[in-house]
Design goal:
The structure is a single chain. By secondary structure, the protein is mainly beta. It folds into four domains: 18-109, no CATH class; 129-227, Sandwich (Immunoglobulin-like); 230-310, Immunoglobulins (Immunoglobulin-like), CATH 2.60.40; 395-484, Immunoglobulin-like, CATH 2.60.40. Helices cover 9% and strands 44% of the residues. It is built from four helices and 42 strands. The strands form eight sheets. Strands 25, 26, 29, 30, 31, 32, 34, 35, 38, 39, 40 and 41 form a twelve-stranded antiparallel beta sheet that branches. Strands 7, 8, 10, 11 and 42 form a five-stranded antiparallel beta sheet that branches. Strands 9, 12, 13, 14 and 15 form a five-stranded antiparallel beta sheet that branches. The N and C termini lie far apart (64 Å).
């Protein structure tokens, strides 16, 4: 009976991991002249809805049909089945992007899927885009790069705090400064979506001037604010009365995002997640592509749209192999598609700049058809039994273990990877073992695995008990913000 219960527990744990794994394996990539949509058939319906929205697939109940093996919603909109396996089905659709030849120093641009999960109360999930809506603007950006939060009135209050996802809902870090018209606090925020509240004389309240809210998990509301990172601009067209922008990021809803007159043109600022997006402007009801953007592609209906890509530039360099005829790179950032991203040989070094959204990725070089790990990178990730070089774009934490110079391998495992002791191998730098990684915001429990032996982090005094009475090291990953009051 005990063995049976253990077996059931293992099965349930594995079943609980499937939606998360499927979430990671649903991808939308741009590859040369095609969009590539990969779907894991084990996906939960909400994860599949997200990737279909990102791909611009119209219609209702499409995810339900696809999970039952009916792909007509995709094939009727120009998608072609390229691979149909037991757990994975991949579709291609012509993109017809007409890139002008860039100078050699310009980065090659690729994209990956962004998962729009439900998040947790108080900590909004990643979103594709966002536009703020205020009845009276109480949050605004300052010229010095800070974001100012303002509570009008309440001049009889003894103390007012600002608390939110940017300071882990602190009761002490966000003290606001009293002015002659209300209370203010300035915060350094990275682009993204944030939840917040004000605490006035000990009473929690959302921003009544902010029209964007979410359930706080206690039958009340948090206010939502987007820190912008992108501006759509359209020069000229002074005789037009109304200009709007829409794209696959907002399901081509032309009535949602209007542009305002600015100088000799039109513009609107908003938040956009890293990735590839198609968009068009609508001028008094007439659709046009962006005349200032030469990158074009076809939307789900085959109509021409402008293309933008957002991400971080990563410089890949492969020394040696001077006699090689062709060197490519492939990884989880482009769904492991070879013969797509070609490096150039400059001074006998193969190199290329690639724009990649933030996240954790495995990759390999392909030298004349032979797949190799990066000899300059001793950090590795195991994926499906394959050992790949590992890179983190915009990491928010560095694991470090000093000493153990005679160890054959040092790995790190924890709550962030379901305690898989084989997945992440740390690299040797001087007298330390190091791994840069992107971790989720909040509490992370972990241990190092040195030649198969699990140990606590000797450089971290924070730890907690576990079910094996061996303890786990603990770190808290905070949002990349710093709070100050002026």
């Amino acid at each position: 009976m005990r063995i049976f219960r253990c077996f059931v527990t293992i099965v349930l744990l594995l079943a609980g991991c499937l939606p998360m794994l499927a979430q990671q394996r649903n991808t939308l990539n741009i590859a040369n002249d095609k969009l590539v949509l990969t779907i894991d058939k084990r996906s939960a319906k909400n994860y599949l809805d997200t990737i279909l929205t990102r791909a611009g697939v119209n219609g209702t109940n499409n995810s339900t049909k696809i999970l039952k093996g009916d792909y007509s919603a995709l094939t009727s909109q120009g998608w072609q089945i390229a691979e149909n396996g037991r757990f994975k089905v991949r579709f291609n659709r012509a993109l017809n992007i007409n890139f002008t030849a860039p100078p050699p120093q310009q980065p090659f641009i690729i994209t990956t899927n962004t998962v729009n999960s439900e998040g947790s109360p108080g900590y909004p999930a990643d979103v594709l885009y966002g536009v703020n809506k205020f009845s009276r603007q109480t949050v605004r950006e300052l010229p010095n790069g800070s974001t100012r939060f303002f509570v009008p009135g309440n001049l009889t209050a003894k103390r007012v705090f600002l608390s939110g996802s940017f300071n882990m809902w602190s009761l002490s870090k966000g003290i606001m400064l009293k002015t002659d018209s209300g209370w203010i606090a300035d915060i350094k925020l990275k682009p993204g979506v944030y939840a917040y509240k004000f605490i006035i004389n000990g009473n929690w309240t959302h921003d009544t001037n902010n029209k964007l809210t979410e359930d706080d998990g206690f039958h009340h509301a948090n206010s939502i604010y987007y820190r912008y990172n992108y501006t759509f601009r359209l020069n000229g067209f002074q005789k037009i009365n109304k200009v709007q922008v829409a794209g696959n990021f907002n399901r081509w809803n032309a009535d949602e995002i209007p542009l305002s007159r600015r100088g000799n043109g039109w513009q609107v600022s908003m938040y956009l997640h890293d990735g590839m997006f198609l968009y068009r402007f609508r001028l008094d009801g007439k659709w046009i592509t962006d005349p200032a953007n030469k990158n074009k592609g076809n939307d789900e209906r085959g109509l021409i749209a402008s293309v933008i890509n957002l991400g971080e530039t990563v410089n890949f360099r492969l020394k040696g192999y001077a006699n090689a005829n062709k060197v490519c790179i492939a990884g989880s950032f482009n769904n492991w598609q070879p013969e797509r991203i070609f490096l150039k040989k400059i001074d006998n070094i193969w190199q290329l700049s690639v724009v990649i959204p933030q996240g954790n990725y495995g990759y390999k070089y392909i030298v004349d058809g032979n797949w190799i790990t990066d000899p300059a990178n001793t950090c590795y990730v195991e994926d499906g039994g394959e050992t790949n070089s590992f890179i983190s774009v915009k990491p928010n934490h560095t694991f470090k273990l000093r000493g153990y110079l005679n160890a054959q391998s040092v790995r790190v495992a924890g709550s962030f990877n379901n305690w898989d002791p084989e997945q992440y191998t740390m690299g040797r730098k001087g007298d330390e073992w190091v791994l840069n990684i992107k971790l989720p915001v909040g509490k992370t429990r972990y241990k190092f695995v040195v030649d198969g032996n699990w140990i606590l982090d000797p450089g971290n005094k924070q730890w907690e008990s576990n079910e094996f009475d061996t303890g786990n090291s603990v770190i808290w990953i905070e949002p990349e913000t710093s709070t100050k009051t002026i």
